[in-house]
Amino acid sequence: MMKRIKYVALLWGVILIAGCTLPHPPLPYDSSNPLKHVAVLPMKNDTNDVDGPNMLRQKMVEALENRSYVVKDLKETDQILRDQMGITLGGQLDLTTAQKLGEALGVEGVLYGTLMDFGETTTGVISVKKVRGKFKLVDTATGQTVWARGLGVRSEMRMEGTAGNAAAILTRAADKRDKEAPWVTIESTTSGSNNVGKSFAIELGTKLLSKAIGKHLDHESTELARRITDNLPWGPGTAVAAATPPAAPIFKMPEIKTPEPPSFGYMDWEGKRDFSAVVYSTSFDKNRNNTFVMEMPLAIAGNKMRMEMDLSKMQQGNGEHADSPISKMIMLNRGDKKTSYTLYPNSQKYMVHTATDENEEKPLVEKTKIGTEMIGPYLTDKFRVKVIYKDGKVDEGLIWNARRLKGMTIKSEVENKDYRITTELKHIVLKRPAASLFEIPDGYMEAQSFMDLMAAKPSK
């Protein structure tokens, strides 16, 4: 029976997380942008939450700075609005014009915002966190809107089983009726229980804890600000904005999107369901001229899988976050339970993930044998492979299948204009791994959210 395990997408998610420990190139900017300095105005509040507008306003400041804008200090902005114009609330901004605001604040652009949703609904069957807003950036010289957008982000934790799944479908369907600012689901997890009372306690406890430490809806607010500004024109950059008089263009660059790594992950482990090995993955980023090397112990027993990752040992990493809660991870896929877990040894916690749909339509795979080659101690048949996905995307690469291992794929290689990725199985042991490897160790506690995980103190 064929066993195909797709892990390249997960691997690249980990690599992108690890990327935060690496030096980043300067942000692009557009020196011709006339909005040299901008002010984020107090938000109009259409909700009953008094803290939400201030939280999202601060997140928008950070988002604008990440788009190369120079943003006026919020305290200074509020003091000028209060002392010179008598404005203390976002709802009072309609009493004046963008031109007058620009003159008083000394900025070329002002960002208006309205908080439309900011809250969490907890029923026991499902808990949904929502943050939604709409914004517009106005040129204070002309009074014209140069950018406007509305968006909502939601995350959900639902009770395990049919009732939780049905509740998720219903709540998402209801949210789709809101057309003014569409919703995006950024996280969907289960409480790990099919008991309404227990799920309610878990959901309520998570909510109360996040409020107690001042982090309620912090993750959702951050994601909203990041996503809603992803099509905002690049700002002029700090060097240009600081120049008096305006200097000649120093650097101008069109908007750059993060390059997409190949999703090719076709590893055909046919005929040997029970084995252990070490996955060696080498990924070369052509744009940054960086190489990432990861060694990941792997164990498979029937429909159970375990893979370990230690980001602190990744080549090109600086080890700065070796003790962070997510620097070490263990992925457990329990096909027998249709559930997967991520264990975090540094914090002695784990997270539960929704099982993937086993009936998902598989891509079309075309293989053409092009020769034979020795890979380590194994004679392999070498194939050129084309993987054609339902959406029309095509990945091409090479795989090597070991004859002595009944055709098991022990190496793959794929490349596009941005990346070259080589993956190889080494130290293969054809023996059923111990059952204890696929269990959650004693002493581990479930993290109810990513925030809960990150707040944990690393174990020594």
Report on this model:
The protein is α+β, with helices and mostly antiparallel strands. The protein folds into 2 domains: 28-242, ABC-type transport auxiliary lipoprotein component (Rossmann fold, 3-Layer(aba) Sandwich), CATH 3.40.50.10610; 258-449, Clam (outer membrane lipoprotein receptor (LolB), chain A), CATH 2.50.20.10. It is built from 9 helices and 19 strands. It has helices spanning 8-18, 52-65, 74-85, 98-105, 162-175, 196-212, 218-228, 238-242, 450-455; strands spanning 37-40, 44-45, 70-71, 109-122, 126-139, 145-158, 183-190, 275-285, 290-301, 304-310, 328-334, 339-344, 349-353, 364-375, 378-388, 394-402, 408-415, 419-429, 445-446. A 12-stranded mixed β-sheet has the order 14-15-16-17-18-8-9-10-11-12-13-19, with no helix packed on it. Strands 1, 2, 3, 4, 5, 6 and 7 form a 7-stranded mixed β-sheet that branches. Helix 2 crosses helix 7 (218-228).
The stretches of 5 or more residues where confidence is low (pLDDT under 50) are: 1-25, 193-214, 244-260, 315-321
By CATH, the architecture of the largest domain is named 3-Layer(aba) Sandwich
Rg estimate, integer Å? 26 Å
CATH superfamily of the largest domain: ABC-type transport auxiliary lipoprotein component
CATH class of the largest domain: Alpha Beta
Number of domains: 2
Biggest sheet architecture? 12 strands, mixed
Estimate the mean pLDDT confidence: 76
Distance between the termini: 43 Å
| Percent range of helical residues | 10-25%
Shape: elongated
Structural class: alpha+beta
Total number of helical segments?
9
Strand and helix order: HEEHEHHEEEHEHHHEEEEEEEEEEEEH
Q: Tell me the strand percentage band.
A: 25-35%
Q: State the total count of DSSP E strands.
A: 19
**CATH topology-level name of the largest domain:** Rossmann fold
Task: Give the strand order of the largest sheet, numbering strands 1, 2, ... along the chain.
Answer: 14-15-16-17-18-8-9-10-11-12-13-19
